[in-house]
Amino acid sequence: MAKDLVCGMDVDPATAKHTAQFEGKTYYFCAPGCKKAFEADPRRYVGSS
Ligand SMILES: [Zn+2]
Fold first, then answer.
1. β-pairing, 18-22 with 25-29?
2. 38 CA to centre of ligand 1 in angstroms
3. Interior CA angle at 17 toward 28 and 19, to 5°?
4. How many structural domains are present in the chain?
5. What spacing in Å lies between the alpha carbon of 23 and ligand 1's midpoint?
6. Can you spell out the DSSP letters for 17-48?
7. Cα–Cα distance between 5 and 29 in angstroms, integer?
8. How far is the CA of 33 from the centre of ligand 1 (A)?
9. Which residues have beta carbons under 5 A from ligand 1 (an ion)?
10. Burial, 44: exposed, middle or buried (Cβ in 10 Å; 0-12, 13-18, 19+)?
11. What residue numbers bound the domain in which 36 lies?
């Protein structure tokens, strides 16, 4: 399972319809709104680690 970093839900990468690329990694989201929020400010969700 992957984690939707915006809302905290678990997302199955095999069926996820909403994905975004950031710094070479793929992130998965439960809904278009979560993807949009992530893309607007990815660092806020990814963190600095
Ligand atoms: Zn979500």
1. antiparallel
2. 10
3. 35
4. 1
5. 20
6. -EEEEETTEEEEESSHHHHHHHHH-HHHHH--
7. 8
8. 7
9. 4, 7, 9, 30, 34
10. exposed
11. 2-46
Distance 25 CA to ligand 1 centre (A): 17
For 7-42, b/e burial (b = at least 16 CB within 10 A) is: eeeebeeeebebebeeeeeebbbbeeebbebbeeeb
pTM of the predicted model, to two decimals? 0.89
* Ligand 1 centroid from CA 43, angstroms: 16
Cα–ligand 1 centroid distance for 41 (angstroms): 15
pLDDT tens-digit profile of 9-41? 999 999 999 999 999 999 999 999 999 999 999
**Pairwise CA distance, residues 27 & 7, whole Å:** 13
